[in-house]
Amino acid sequence: MNSSRIRKGALALTMTAGLLGLAACGDDGGGEGNTLERAQEEGTIKIAYAGEIPYSFENDEGELTGATIAIDEEIFKALGIDNVEGQLVEWDALIPGLNKGEYDAVSAGMSILPDRCAKAAFAEPTIMYTSTLMVAEGNPEGLSDFASIEGTGLTLAVQSGAIEQGQAQDLGLENTMTVNSAQDGMDAVANGRADAFALTNITLSTMAEDNPDAGVETTDAFVAEIDGLKQISAGSTVFRPEDTALLEAYNEELAKIVGDEQRFVETVGEFGFTDAERPPEGLTAEMLCEGDLEAANEAADGAGGSTDSEDSTGSTDSTDSTDG
Hints:
D-Maltodextrin-Binding Protein, domain 2, seven-stranded mixed beta sheet, 16 strands, disordered C terminus
């Protein structure tokens, strides 16, 4: 049975020196796979998570859980790594901390975007994303997606670093306010400071359901369209660029999960995910890293997948929260 332990706060300071040393010996160094070998020898891998429900978070019992954690635990166990240690890290610090050697991977459902791919190595698509708008109960403005906000003068809240922030910028939405967390965004809508809050559908739908007295609801899920292209978006686990052996081994096991509808749903279903969030066959991290949305759309259409049930990326140069 996998063991997931949470390390946060002062541990980030006490571990830094030792982990920097481990990172140096953990570099694949041209394919030697030392990070993978070290994790297999120790039976433990250290991952960073962002604390976003339902992707990667600490539950009421203090246990590390979530959809991306469930997938990663299953994969690491198959690789002979039974223990997953988690460190809570602020979103914008996830990749910098990874490259400093503070942990071995990022398990936060981070969207695969070109600017991120220039800094880190993304596994193949793990979970597809759609966006939604959180609005006041009853949806008084009749909002449905970004297009319904254009030209209205309404205030849209977006989370710092989220794909929806980039999308709003690309679409020229003028009245936006930036919040630091999903909770802040919900509060902005509940308090009337924002008319809507845009983030991933799974996250906001879960929050609305878990906070029935907040006076908010969510619209139907949507995929943003920019310049005639649906902004196909997928998240995955992130590794250091030099950890090629670990990445390759991870991808091999990941393919067995995402390639099997039943196994995928059994792994992440308890967190609200369905086959609609399973990446379509043919969609690759390379397409998304290159910002090739035409190829991504073709892959989704060719696999019979509906891009209406996959989370949207902002411009291919934007950043996201998991970014959902």
